[in-house]
């Protein structure tokens, strides 16, 4: 009997630099999964929205770009940014408007040390570092509010306004508490800078303690962001789920990725928990112009992001299988240079595809 496979519609935005290499690798791995499992298919549509295109035609996304994206089940994103375009232009033309317009107010960034890889922290074992950073993705320091006056004089004045709302804080806190509750240690660390920033950060603290009352089974603690960087390095085992603002979590998750072995393995999910809009999945690294086009980028962050996407789509067996395939490949020592190996992007991709075929 031939049953009809479910079709998942994926909008693919490879973007710039190694974003292109790793999106191609991730697409191959996803197609291998669906071919082997046969219970679902992916229908990919690729959008050439990139800095390269911008330099040629003057725009990243067409005027109806956000409406186009809304027609898909999920979005897979590579990276955006190129040295010839100021970073604030590329970010504000593509990734930030998508997160905002599609209500992706949560950014989830898991971190762990993969088998066969090492943390730069001496003595840090695999089980010592297992975190999920929940990043507020819609307001805070990246609200885009502010301005500059007297720009072309020696007296230029700029403001960069952080926006924090009760509604915005409360929804990210609830997501973070739910995440903490779903994990064995049931532990949430909240990060602020409420000693020096006395408005938004103090509201953040207050809402945290309010929401905590609904989660008596989750243990909590509060850290200032500066002390948090020290704790991540010196006492990694003491942490589990972490919630922080847009800016703080951006920085802490780069540190977390580096501590887990390489920025090249870390995934992120931009989620609209209401599921009214498509969510977006992307590795946390950028376009890495220094290694772009050389075929040596680590595709693991892209694969892990793809696994998170597949899980979000409800394909749990496929997600677990992909994660298992990734672990088996790193455990066997098939790794790119950033993880201390000697394989290239293609070598790791081939190995993961072969593992998937073996697993199912
Ligand atoms: P963004 O502003 O988009 O975060 P960035 O300027 O912070 O980008 P990345 O592009 O994330 O920088 O990368 C920093 C460096 O880390 C790169 O120059 C590259 O050497 C290395 N790197 C990043 N991603 C990978 C990867 N997937 N594989 C190997 N090395 C990587
Ligand atoms: Mg960066």
TrEMBL record:
GO MF annotation list:
D-malate dehydrogenase (decarboxylating) (NAD+) activity; magnesium ion binding; NAD binding
Q: Which Pfam families match?
A: Iso_dh
Cite the EC number: 1.1.1.83
Can the keyword Hydrolase be found in this entry's annotation? Answer: no
Report keywords, A-Z.
Magnesium, Manganese, Metal-binding, NAD, Oxidoreductase
Domain of life from the UniProt record: Eukaryota
EC category: oxidoreductase
Give start and end of each Isopropylmalate dehydrogenase-like domain. 9-352
The entry assigns this protein to a family as follows:
Belongs to the isocitrate and isopropylmalate dehydrogenases family.
**Which protein, by its recorded name, is this?**
D-malate dehydrogenase (decarboxylating)
- Organism of this sequence: Lentithecium fluviatile CBS 122367
Q: Where is the organism placed in the taxonomic lineage, from the top?
A: Eukaryota, Fungi, Dikarya, Ascomycota, Pezizomycotina
């Amino acid at each position: 009997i031939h049953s009809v496979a479910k079709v998942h519609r994926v909008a693919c935005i490879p973007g710039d630099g190694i974003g292109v290499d790793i999106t191609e690798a991730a697409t191959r791995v996803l197609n291998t999964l669906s071919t082997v499992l046969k219970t679902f298919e992916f229908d990919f549509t690729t959008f050439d929205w990139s800095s390269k295109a911008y330099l040629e035609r003057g725009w990243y996304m067409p005027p109806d770009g956000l409406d186009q994206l809304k027609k898909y089940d999920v979005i897979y994103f590579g990276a955006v940014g190129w040295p010839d375009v100021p970073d604030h232009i590329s970010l504000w033309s593509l990734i930030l408007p998508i997160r905002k317009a599609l209500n992706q107010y949560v950014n989830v960034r898991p971190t762990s040390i993969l088998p066969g890889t090492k943390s730069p922290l001496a003595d840090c074992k695999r089980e010592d570092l297992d975190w999920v950073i929940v990043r507020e993705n819609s307001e805070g320091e990246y609200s885009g509010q502010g301005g500059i006056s007297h720009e072309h004089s020696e007296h230029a004045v700029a403001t960069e306004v952080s926006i924090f709302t009760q509604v915005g804080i409360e929804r990210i806190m609830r997501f973070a508490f739910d995440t903490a509750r779903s994990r064995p240690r049931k532990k949430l660390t909240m990060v602020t800078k409420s000693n020096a920033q006395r408005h938004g950060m103090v509201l953040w603290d207050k809402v945290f303690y309010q929401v905590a009352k609904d989660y008596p089974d989750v243990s909590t603690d509060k850290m200032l962001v500066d002390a948090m960087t020290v704790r991540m390095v010196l006492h990694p085992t003491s942490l589990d789920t972490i919630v922080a603002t847009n800016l703080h979590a951006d920085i802490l998750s780069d540190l977390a990725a580096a501590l887990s072995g390489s920025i090249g393995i870390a995934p992120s999910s931009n989620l609209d928990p209401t599921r009214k809009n498509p969510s977006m999945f992307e590795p946390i690294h950028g376009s890495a112009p220094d290694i772009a086009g050389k075929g040596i980028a680590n595709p693991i962050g892209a694969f892990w992001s793809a696994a998170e996407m597949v899980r979000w789509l409800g394909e749990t067996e496929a997600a677990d299988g992909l994660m298992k395939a990734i672990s088996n490949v790193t455990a066997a020592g098939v790794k790119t240079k950033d993880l201390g190996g000697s394989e290239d992007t293609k070598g790791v991709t081939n190995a993961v595809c072969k593992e998937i075929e073996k697993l199912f």
